[in-house]
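Narrative summary of target 7.
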Amino acid sequence: MKDIASSTNTLLAALTYAGTHINKDLQGKAWVGHTPFAYWLVAALKPKTLVELGTHGGGSYFSFCQSVVDNKLDTKTYAIDTWMGEKQAGFYSESLFKKVMDFNIEHFDNFSTLMKMTFDEALNEFDDDSVDLLHIDGFHSYEAVSNDFHTWYPKLSKEAIVLFHDTHEIKPGFGVHQFWDELKKEHREQCFEFKHSHGLGMCFPKSSKAAIKKKKEFSLDLEKIFNLFSIIGDDIYYNINGRYSLQKNFQLSIDDLVKILKKLKTDNPELSNQLKSLF
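Modeled conformation, tokenized:
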């Protein structure tokens, strides 16, 4: 993962990306607040291999794929799901898989592969140390997410990033938040998270040096970038779901974020029109 795209142009493009493949009638409403960050993360990391465990209607997966296209990356992406459903997300017919497959063929067929199987069945299809970005969003019990992480751990490259959705979804049957809390205690300096759109955790599980290195390569203040994506992402969440996902007592420094945006616009006048809607 060389030549990290930490430029302001990359950040600007991500801030204006809202995942147009997700709407009020399609799947992905719970994840939609993370689409700008997902788009930016792929552009910044340039992963060779990206794997998603639990794709459902493709809300998150196609956000990753669109960044691969727009940034002309040499990335291979894999979506793994039975597309049968389960008791948390509900069960669904074969028509959902057909819709996802048709969309994939039309837009991303040259680098994206849909794997209709269980996560464990897919393990043998990947070499150890080969996956640079892993998104875990399958069944959300503590036991399931723990199994997904530990069984796929050998497949991760040394500087790999793992994303966990629903880290702030606290209700019966959902244990991602519990596993995430344990992971943060074990890898405190290697974990970062968003609280909006049901929560998204990001971890460098194999290397604290990789986490520190990436912070420097991103150049901009990582905490402020996360705050920026939180505000913009939650606004996108509101547009799709009709409500905000952040609690009212969750405070962000608006002044700091406005300063960042103004600097980005000053440094990139050719792209300033794209940011008019942001403040």
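The beta strands are 49-53, 76-81, 85-86, 90-91, 112-116, 131-136, 156-165, 191-194, 200-203.
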